[in-house]
Amino acid sequence: MKNIIILGTGQVGRAMALDLCRDFSVLATDKDEKALFKLKTVENLEKELLDVNDSGNLQKMVEPFDLVINAVPGTIGFATFKRIVDLGKPLVDIAFFEQDPFAMHKTAVEKGIPAFVDCGVAPGMSHILLGYWTQYMDVDDYICYVGGLPKKRQWPYEYKAPFSPVDVLEEYIRPARYVVNYQVVTKPALSDPELVDIDPIGTLEAFNTDGLRTLLKNQLAPNMIEKTLRYPGHRQIMQILRDSGFLNKNKIQIKDQSIRPIDLTSRLLFEQWYLDDTEEEFTAMQVLMRGSRKGRKRQIRYDLFDTFHSETKTSSMARTTGYTATAIARLYLQNRLKQTGVIPPESIIRNKADFEYLMQLFEERDIYYHFSQQEDE
Questions:
Q1: Which of 72, 74, 106, 259 could form a disulfide bond with 8, CB atoms 3.0-4.6 angstroms apart?
Q2: Which three-class secondary structure state does DSSP give residue 284?
Q3: Are 355 and 349 in contact (CB under 8 A)?
Q4: CB neighbour class for 11 (10 Å; exposed up to 12, middle 13-18, buried from 19)
Q5: Under 8 Å between Cβ of 315 and 158
Q6: pLDDT band for position 313 (cuts 50, 70, 90)
């Protein structure tokens, strides 16, 4: 039986562990004993404490495994990613770190391993859809709206985070890049707000964040943009915090203490943004691709609306993010993915059989990407 080690058992890592341990030998690791404690009743799953910053222990732990899944916070994501690639271990990564993953491409090729990066819902499934459909049409415009939100709106933020608040705050300060006529355009995060109707929730607000990531290098369409969805009003509050300095990364001196404002803000928001394990929430995504096929205009659209899964007690964001990664893990361990190097999501699934297998795995887990198209006659 193939064996997998998962680094990080937050909500997403825990969902992946529960999904994969049905078919593989899985070791779930975390430096936080409380995180592992939530998996204590799962009998066919090994659990062990591990601090990924301890490079010697990390090397010893991952050595016997066929695949590593990196689900640590983004702040330590790249360092962990780099260590795993340097060790020559095949890797599926959902750390969504800020650094350029292609910096490790040459090493991964030399090691003869794949390092599948950004294997979540967006980036992840959003990019997979674009990469797949560019084989069947010339895509001129790619637009993605995506967000995860609690069903119950609570003032003032009307938001809960299924992962570390600091990773969310990064989205609000990192310059947002998108593509116009093959040229990269940069604007501040939170800019260009617009209202979007999302069935069955209603009106949400979309704004620029830096979500294209690897698509900035693999420009599969001349015009590409991704926007984050939130309840109307959230963006303005976060813009006020950002512009007032609460999200700054430079240390400031307060009496005898030197702190980064973003660290304080993240700590204060932790409890307010904490998403309880049984709290109802949803993930909404709309991916629109416009272009042509054989000279005829064509539009492809996928709509996702997924909610907290009461049967498995799993959050929607954990499911839609984690099950993309576990599907890629399954494809790799079935020897269906042969690439080596750093592999972005838009390059992972390029044939119909693998794409249909991916969609079937989602449907078996009650995740549905609703497909629609328009084409000139």
A1: 72
A2: strand
A3: yes
A4: buried
A5: no
A6: confident
Closest CA to 101 of 118, 86, 88: 118
Whether residue 39 contacts residue 45, with contact meaning beta carbons closer than 8 Å, is answered with yes
Half-sphere exposure of 266 (CA within 13 A, CB side): 19
Fold classification of 125-307 is Dihydrodipicolinate Reductase; domain 2 (3.30.360)
Where along the chain do its domains lie?
Answer: 3-121+317-366, 125-307
pLDDT digits (tens, 9 = 90+) for 228-283: 999 999 999 999 999 999 999 999 999 899 999 999 999 999 989 988 878 899 99
Q: Using one digit for the tens of pLDDT, what is the confidence trace for 25-73?
A: 999 999 999 888 989 888 899 999 999 999 999 999 999 999 999 999 8
pLDDT band at 377; cut points 50, 70, 90:
low
pLDDT at residue 206 tops 80? yes
Does the pTM surpass 0.70? The reply is yes
Q: What is the pLDDT of residue 182?
A: 95
C-alpha pair distances (Å), 89 with each of 45, 68, 340: 21, 7, 11
Contacting residues for 328 by C-beta, under 8 A, at least 6 apart: 92, 116, 119, 337, 348
Region 155-161 average pLDDT: 92
Residues contacting 145, CB < 8 A, separation 6+: 196, 198, 206, 226, 227, 229, 284, 285, 286
CATH class of 3-121+317-366: alpha beta
Instruction: Name residue 146's amino acid.
Output: V
